[in-house]
Design brief:
By secondary structure, the protein is of the alpha+beta class. The protein is built from four helices and four strands. It has helices at 3-17, 62-74, 80-95, 119-129; strands at residues 27-33, 38-47, 50-59, 133-134. Helix 1 crosses helix 2.
Length: 140
């Protein structure tokens, strides 16, 4: 793998590892990839429909961490619907070589395009967005 891409990928993974729990979680989801054992927990705080805070916890490979780090870096100021759209664009970009990179920093994941069985690792955090539900802390 090209060193430049590897360095950028590891920087995205670091963003996920540096994520800190939210003091007032609003929505949360946990998804597993049973094939490789990756697990992502995504927690967001919202104001109206706009995401104001993001926390990702990843137990998995560097690719899963990088995908979660990418999500965490773009989620603030977006809605869940916007993130679902970005996740779809990312999935399309990973499988269709003629498409341009859908979001800034996603080019770090370019080497993964050729490794189809690792796409789910990169997209696991994006997939979690469509499963967000009220966090237990917010239920009364």
């Amino acid at each position: 793998m090209d060193t430049l891409y590897q360095d950028k990928l590891l920087l995205l993974a670091q963003k996920a590892r540096a994520s800190t729990p939210l003091s007032q979680p609003g929505l949360t989801a946990t998804l597993n990839n049973p094939i490789c054992g990756d697990r992502v927990t995504l927690t967001v705080s919202v104001s109206g429909k706009v995401i104001t805070g993001v926390y990702v916890a990843v137990k998995g490979c560097a690719l899963c961490e990088a995908g979660a780090g990418l999500l965490a870096s773009i989620a603030p100021e977006k809605t869940c619907d916007e993130l679902i759209t970005v996740g779809t664009q990312m999935a399309d970009w990973l499988t269709q070589p003629t498409l341009d990179v859908p979001i800034q920093d996603a080019e770090a994941l370019h080497p993964v395009r050729a490794i189809k069985n690792r796409h789910k690792c990169v997209l696991l955090a994006f997939s979690a967005v469509s499963h967000l539900a009220p966090a237990e802390d917010t239920l009364t």
